[in-house]
Amino acid sequence: MQTAATSSILINGYRIAYEQYGEGSPVWLLHGTPSYSYEWRKVIPSLVQKGYKVYVHDLLGYGASERPLDADTSVAAQYRIFSQLLDELGMDRLHVAAHDLGGIVGLQLAQEQPERVQSLTLLNMPSYDSWPSPTWKKIIEEQLEQVEQMPRADFDTMLKKQLPMAVYNKELMTGDTLDAYLEPHAGSLGKASFFSHQVAHYNAKYTESYGTDLPKLKVPVQIIWGEEDEWQPLAYAKRLVQDIPDACLHVIPKAGHFVIEDEPGQCSDYIDRFCNEHP
Q1: Model-level pTM?
Q2: Would you tell me the crossing angle of helices 204-211 and 101-112 to the nearest 10 degrees?
Q3: What is the DSSP string of 89-112?
Q4: Beta-sheet pairing, 52-57 with 117-123
Q5: At what angle do helices 101-112 and 75-88 cross, to 10 degrees?
Q6: Average pLDDT of the chain, as a whole number
Q7: Which CATH entry fits the domain spanning 7-277: 3.40.50.2000, 3.40.50.1820, 3.40.190.10, 3.30.365.10?
Q8: How far apart are the first and last CA of the chain?
């Protein structure tokens, strides 16, 4: 598996894949769904070159982290694991950049432990009633059991159709890159894990619950958004920037939901600039 998280650590008895790169001020990159730390591979070298110590991990049930049958992999559980991971590594203060589902985890850290977060960058994340995306909302409400039981080949075909929706430049989600995103979902374990660890928690209750507390945030926040996101429309970014005190919004043209695939250089530059503004 082409995870960027090649080491591991035990948290609550579960093996969590993580890694650190470079030296300097710490920046933690949180991935989304249906993904894993691989999605940050184009951003990590740039941030290391800019003088940061970059951390990534695969969420429980994702990528190279353990995928136990009955584990709680809800957003709240992922936050607790992330917090304990920071404790284990002795990290008291850090910058956080978080994409998609990772954005909810990063926001919870900022809300629960603001003293720990130097800055928070949110990229194309679910919010308010935007989760799940219209595609998955329809599947969950109308045909979830049928999709869960579909033959392996049909499941692969479905993901191969959906993943290119995440990028503006469709050529970026082909060949080896598409294979890398599909790899965690391969085989019977991968398919079962996808539904039990990821899809089972595609629920607006997680995104709506934090929305009322956004005006109370006490950490510096910037929002980066791919303008052509087919899963999380730009309107949600504009709503977030209105609700979060002193937040700023950077809209990247010709970029989709996986904005770090379409424009990794711009994302890295925005993260670097914001971290420098909040040392």
Answers
A1: 0.94
A2: 40
A3: TT--SEEEEEETHHHHHHHHHHHH
A4: unpaired
A5: 60
A6: 92
A7: 3.40.50.1820
A8: 35
